[in-house]
């Protein structure tokens, strides 16, 4: 699936803004997945796997997940990013930084 320049820019903004941190727990260095709204299919932010699973099971109107759902990173940044799938692909704007061993070969 090809993504336009706006999606690439939005994804890059999100990735840079979160700086490798989970949008809910704030932990850094964990594998992050794209969390999306299942009604709109728009990306809300990048979460660690644990928070992503717990967010899906949480239906409380208050608490950290409710706060996240009301004010998630793409709302804060004012960007719109359609969810293209759970896996990172070559055209995914949220592709992690290239690994050092892959550079300069
Ligand atoms: Zn987390």
From TrEMBL:
It holds the Pfam family Endonuclease_7. InterPro entries: Endonuclease_7, Endonuclease_7_sf, His-Me_finger_sf. SUPFAM superfamilies: His-Me finger endonucleases. This is Recombination endonuclease VII. It comes from Nonomuraea deserti. The lineage of its organism: Bacteria, Bacillati, Actinomycetota, Actinomycetes, Streptosporangiales.
């Amino acid at each position: 699936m090809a993504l336009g320049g706006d999606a690439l820019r939005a994804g890059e903004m999100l990735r840079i803004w979160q700086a490798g941190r989970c949008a809910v727990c704030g932990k850094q260095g964990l594998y992050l997945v794209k969390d999306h709204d299942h009604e709109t299919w728009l990306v809300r932010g990048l979460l660690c796997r644990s928070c992503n699973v717990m967010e899906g099971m949480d239906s409380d109107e208050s608490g950290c997940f409710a706060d996240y759902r009301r004010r998630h990173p793409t709302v804060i940044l004012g960007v719109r990013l359609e969810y293209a799938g759970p896996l990172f692909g070559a055209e995914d704007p949220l592709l992690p930084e290239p690994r050092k061993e892959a550079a300069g070969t």
